Amino acid sequence: MIHKYFQHISKIMAAESEMLQIFYKRHHGKLGEGREILLQRFLSTYLPKRFGVGSGFALLSGTDISTEQDIVIYDALNNPVFFSECRSAIFPPSAIQALIEVKSSLNKTELKKTVQKTSLVKQELRKAPSILVLESPRLMEPLVCLFAYSGSDLSSIKETLISLQRDITETDRLDLVCILNEGVISSGTYFNVSIFGEPNSLYARSMTPERRNEILTKYPDKVLAYRLRENSLLIFYYWLLSYIIRRPVIIPDIIRYAPSDYVWGEEC
To answer: For 90, which of 35, 82, 106, 266 could close a Cys bridge (C-beta 3.0–4.6 Å)?
Structure first.
């Protein structure tokens, strides 16, 4: 029954996307913004309420912010959000659970831009000061995803993604790709955690070298694609939720955003 529910939601999103195309076909910026809002509305409705959904920038240091992110899924309970009333808010990296780039149509050029942007933002986020509150086997990094309303053939997208990421460190790769009513692709950190388990977890420790080699033989590029058609939205949502809901609580080390030589005041 649930799969039917999400299939209808997927059809509604596709229909609304087409309506936006009719009215905003000469205003590409507004068309893209409208399609971002469609996905934001879906995520705000179906993610647990401890997750907020917005858009904006990651706060990288006391003087620097990231490139603008179409959709930011963030911890709404344990972290502040700056300029939260603005369309483009500023999020401390400790708040960020996932970043999603939204495309009206996905082709090789757009995929290349997203792969490059993903690598850069993942490297930047690791440098930001934060404090782990609840201990975890590992500090799982936020996901970086791509969601498109249409695109080239899924097999072609998969092969292009493999080629573009071949020289990129696994942890800096794009994690999830969803093409609405077409399919999903996993890569990067998500692929490793979903297939091999979290490092030091019971599942990871119990995996035999033979089983690991068997998986690597089947997926030498560590990219997995499924042509799911009307089930694509549900599986994307499930994969996204299954990852972010297991991440530990992290809070920003706000004091460290100030310059190291900054004088806060004086003792009296």
So the answer is: 82
